[in-house]
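Batch queue: ligand-bound targets. Current item pairs a single chain with flavin mononucleotide. No template structures supplied; prediction is de novo from sequence plus SMILES. Inputs echoed for audit trail.
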Amino acid sequence: MEPFGPRRQVEIYSRSPGSPEPLPIGFQEWEARARAILADGPFDYVAGGAGREDTMRANREAFERRRIHPRMLRDVAERDLTIELFGVHVPAPIILAPVGVQSIIHPQAERAPARAAASSGIPFTLSTVSSVTIEQIAAEMGTALRWFQLYPGRDRAVMNSLVSRAEAAGYRCLILTVDTTMLGWRERDLRKSYLPFMHGEGMANYLSDPVFRSQLSSPPEVDPRSAVLHFLDIYVNPSFTWDDVDFLRTQTRMPIVLKGILHPDDAREALTHGIDGIVVSNHGGRQVDGGVATLDVLPAVCAAVGDRVPVLMDSGIRSGADVVKALALGARAVLIGRPYLYALAAAGEDGVRAVIRNLLAELDLQLALSGCSSLAGIGPDLLWQSQAHSLDVR
Ligand SMILES: Cc1cc2nc3c(=O)[nH]c(=O)nc-3n(C[C@H](O)[C@H](O)[C@H](O)COP(=O)(O)O)c2cc1C
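Prediction returned. Tokens below.
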């Protein structure tokens, strides 16, 4: 198959004059479009982070501090971006991150990114707190690759029910998000008193769940307020520990991947609990403020894990260059959040598809122009290490 980069360039450059690519190309343009379309509440819910948003800034600074150090005169005509993840071939090391309540962004909600991911072959991760059910997304995606994200809930019976529904509906991986045992302190949302769940948004999987429904004294259609309150009571769980992870391990055959690991010791512990993968993530800076950047801790987590399970990462990825940097520091693949959310707001399914295709194209070209024809040989050498090089001047 023709590589992603030139294929996409030709497609865009060969549009007839006067009808240029109508959609934005870069992250900032998409963000500006979303800003113009969304009301303040939903826009800030997506764009914001915890506290002073220091972690969010640190995520970006960590990417900006690193520089790709390209190599020349290597044959890069044939390129291969495919990877294997949890026994499945994926065309490129990019995954759509789990993001809840997408109904606040676009009327199609999760259906649009699910379809866009399906048409590109990259995995789509459905959030526990999605606006469309597990089964509806499975129906949209057919046989395409999908993962399910689980919040550590307070009620094991409801959690088990969600997990078995996901498994039955053909989701191939369970992403257990461990950094959200409660909501972070989000100033933008607090200032506006904006939390979508309070209005019943993001509850599709619960309202359609027989176990959840059996716990309500009247059906949610009759008493929606009680359903919201029960949901708020159980959807996250501050008491969640490694014992609960062990229990979950016995409940599903899907690979379990912990999302939100930042410390090498937690990564080591995860291995002793039979975990199949790690996502180094700080939830896009939405949970702990003043926290470490994911790119900064990625090498230490990768060193702790070795090649026993794949280490993925997210938080701050905005371009193909960022993906290259993450791969160079040991990530097997990356997840993207806000880049596809802004595209969803601005242009629905077409927008998300454009973001995916542009990111794949840019990644392909970035790697080729840096002298890499496959992901296998990418390592820290691909990044400029100013100290090491200044010692090596001959
Ligand atoms: C609006 C929004 C909602 C999110 N909802 C979830 C969620 O339901 N479950 C989850 O595990 N992570 C959630 N995340 C975190 C993302 O999965 C991902 O870690 C983060 O967006 C990556 O950072 P980035 O947005 O800088 O790419 C959410 C992020 C955003 C921006």
